[in-house]
């Protein structure tokens, strides 16, 4: 083992990832591959907290793995694996549940939002979501967890549970730190810029998926909701829609917000929206092409999955044994 710190993160295969998932999470992971021992998961158990079509969920898990690799994650450098392949995630969740209080879960913003959106299916898994997420992180003793701003609260629970367990038994878990990017941590919906862009949004015009083709991307940006004063100025409070488009443009072109304001000082929203659409489409095209190529080679993806599972299991098994011993369970010979 080298002395690099450990990084862990995951995305749910709950839909095709959006550009929000990309700039808020996956894109940043790629930059850390050399600096950390990186472990990235496909959080399929989390996805079950909302009703899924089983055959679609299965296909999307493989597609998400292909997308990870297409975005630049190198399976030779990091561990890429499917959460449900490593049974220790569910087992540690049980142990951590015994030191978690219902009150700290029921006040989570995501739980409240998702309970309102899926009122017909408010299940225990939805409430327990942050504990499973804490298990993901703590099993690997991750130091750093790169996520979008919406996951900050869940990271707090993971930290609280690590500290609580360490205090109640003895030092066991690393207390993880969130890494939230300065720009792109919360890409907003194109149809309602006060709401986070989300891959499970019923309104397809609200998000750009990593599968959208150039025409679709340009059409969605053309329709993006903005104010009506036609000035391209960054002002989140009063001009949420335009500010969101400026952030996206900045992330896909590398230009600063200031230089975007200058570039478009004598242009209107129509011109700007077209430019944003073109920049995003050309940024996504090589990724989508690579992903589609990878999907033609299922044997390769299955091998990456199996390697990832083996490496992740080895670490997870060691941590879980330690936890079982500390809480007083008898370990089998
Ligand atoms: P769902 O709609 O199913 O809840 P989601 O699109 O919110 O899914 P997740 O799989 O829950 O996505 O999140 C994966 C990662 O992407 C997390 O790190 C999350 O913080 C980040 N992320 C999600 N949405 C955005 C967004 N709009 N802007 C920036 N980062 C985001
Ligand atoms: N809940 C996360 C996905 C996720 C995750 C994790 C992120 C599951 N397990 C562990 C970081 C670390 C989300 O983005 N909704």
Mean pLDDT, rounded to whole units?
Answer: 96
The rounded Rg comes to 21 Å
Strand order of the largest sheet: 1-2-3
Give the low-confidence spans: none
Largest sheet: 3 strands, parallel
Number of strands: 5
Number of helices: 13
Shape: globular
Which molecules other than protein and nucleic acid are bound? adenosine-5'-triphosphate, L-tryptophanamide
The N- to C-terminal Cα distance equals 27 Å
Give the second-level CATH assignment, the architecture of the largest domain.
3-Layer(aba) Sandwich
Q: State the fourth-level CATH superfamily of the largest domain.
A: HUPs
Proportion of residues in helical segments: 40-55%
Helix-strand topology string: EHEHHEHHHHEHEHHHHH
- Compute the number of structural domains: 2
Mind telling me the CATH class of the largest domain?
Alpha Beta
Q: What features would you describe in this structure?
A:
The chain has 333 residues and is mainly alpha-helical. It folds into two domains: 6-185 and 298-327, HUPs (Rossmann fold); 204-292, Tyrosyl-Transfer RNA Synthetase (Orthogonal Bundle). The protein has helices spanning 19-31, 44-47, 54-70, 88-97, 102-106, 109-117, 124-139, 152-168, 214-222, 240-253, 257-263, 269-295, 298-327; strands at 6-11, 37-42, 79-82, 144-146, 177-179. Strands 1-2-3 form a three-stranded parallel sheet. Strands 4-5 form a two-stranded parallel ribbon. Helix 3 packs across helix 12 (269-295), helix 4 (88-97) runs parallel beside helix 13 and helix 10 packs across helix 12 (269-295). The longest helix is centred in the C-terminal third of the chain and has 30 residues, at 298-327. The chain is globular. The two termini are 27 Å apart. 40% of the residues are buried. L-tryptophanamide binds at residues 8-12, 43, 46, 133, 136-137, 145, 147, 151.
